[in-house]
Design a protein that fits this description.
- The chain is α/β, with parallel strands linked by helices.
- Helix content is 32%, strand content 20%.
- Strands 4-2-6-1-7-8-9 form a seven-stranded parallel beta sheet, sandwiched between helices.
- Helix 1 packs across helix 2 and helix 1 packs across helix 7.
- The longest helix is centred in the C-terminal third of the chain and has 14 residues.
- Bound molecules: adenosine-5'-triphosphate, 7,8-diamino-nonanoic acid and magnesium ion.
- It is found in: Cytoplasm.
- Its cofactor is Mg(2+).
- Homodimer.
- Keywords: ATP-binding, Biotin biosynthesis, Cytoplasm, Ligase, Magnesium, Metal-binding, Nucleotide-binding.
C-alpha cells in the first residue's frame, strides 16, 4: 500500500515542525511556503546567513501570501556561508541559548539552514538546535546523484538523537529505485509528502501545490 497519507488526516492539534533538508538548496523554502500555506501556519527562520535583501522570510511572504506571519530571525548574518563562518566574519558567536520558539497558538513552520550537520558555532549544529527546540522534523529531499547517501545519513542522525521524523518531503521527481530505497528506510510513523517540480515559483503555483497536498 502507498504510505502517502493526507496531512490533514493527522491529529488536529497545533503543529510545530522543523524543516530541515539533506543539504542546502534542496527546496526547504519552497516546501516551507507550500506547507505554511497548507496549514495556514506562521513561519520562523532562526538563522539567515546571506541574502538579507531577499531572505527566506521575505520569500515566504512573497510566495505564501504577504499576510503570512514571519517571526524575526534570531540571527541575521550578511555572509552567504555556513552560519558558524558567517557569524565569525561579524565577530560574533551563535549561542544556542538565544533561540526560543516564538510564542503562538498557530501552527508554526521553522526552517533550518542547510542540512542537519551545518555548524552554528564550533560545538553546535542545526541538529542540536532541533533537539533544543524539542520539535519534530521534516526532511526535504531533492533528487541528485548522491541524494540517497545524504538522505539515509540524515535519517540515521535523527534516529540517533531520537528526533521524530514526521514528514519526508520528496521535492520534485525521483527515479523509481531512488525513491524505493529511501522509502524502505523510513519508519512507518513518517508521512510521505510529495511536492511537484514547479515550472516557476509563483504565489499561484505555490497555492495550487498546497491545494493538491490535501488530495494526496
Ligand atoms: N519544487 C520545486 N520546483 C521548482 N523549483 C524548485 C523547487 N524546489 C526548489 N526549487 C528551486 O531550487 C532552488 C533552491 O530552493 P530553496 O531556496 O527552497 O532551497 P533551500 O533548501 O531553502 O536553500 P537554503 O539552504 O539556502 O535555505 C531555488 O531556486 C528554488 O526556486
Ligand atoms: C548560505 C546558504 N544559502 C545556507 N543558508 C547555508 C548553507 C550552509 C551549508 C554548509 C555546508 O553544509 O557546508
Ligand atoms: Mg531556504
Amino acid at each position: 500500500m502507498d504510505k502517502t497519507t493526507s496531512l490533514k488526516n493527522e491529529n488536529s492539534g497545533q503543529k510545530t515542525i522543523f524543516i530541515t533538508g539533506i543539504g542546502t538548496e534542496v527546496g526547504k523554502t519552497v516546501c516551507s511556503a507550500i506547507l505554511t500555506k497548507y496549514f495556514n501556519a506562521e513561519y520562523w527562520k532562526p538563522v539567515q546567513s546571506g541574502d538579507l535583501d531577499f531572505s527566506d522570510s521575505m520569500k515566504i511572504q512573497s510566495w505564501a501570501g504577504k499576510n503570512t506571519v514571519c517571526h524575526a530571525e534570531t540571527y541575521r548574518l550578511k555572509l552567504a556561508a555556513s552560519p558558524h563562518h558567517s557569524a565569525k566574519e561579524e565577530g560574533i558567536t551563535i549561542n544556542l541559548n538565544n533561540f526560543t520558539l516564538p510564542e503562538t497558538s498557530a501552527h508554526l513552520i521553522v526552517e533550518g539552514a542547510g542540512g542537519l550537520m551545518v555548524p552554528l558555532n564550533d560545538e553546535d549544529f542545526i541538529i542540536d538546535l532541533i533537539q533544543k527546540l524539542n520539535i519534530p522534523a521534516a526532511l526535504v529531499v531533492k533528487n541528485y546523484l548522491g541524494c540517497i547517501n545524504h538522505t539515509l545519513l540524515s535519517i540515521k542522525a535523527l534516529e540517533q538523537r531520537k528526533i521524530s521524523l514526521k514528514y519526508i518531503i520528496l521535492n520534485g521527481n525521483f527515479p523509481t529505485d531512488t525513491e524505493r530505497i529511501i522509502l524502505k528506510n523510513i519508519q512507518p510513523q513518517t508521512t510521505i509528502v510529495r511536492i511537484p517540480h514547479l515550472e516557476k515559483i509563483t504565489t499561484e503555483n505555490i497555492e495550487t501545490a498546497s491545494k493538491q497536498l490535501a488530495i494526496l
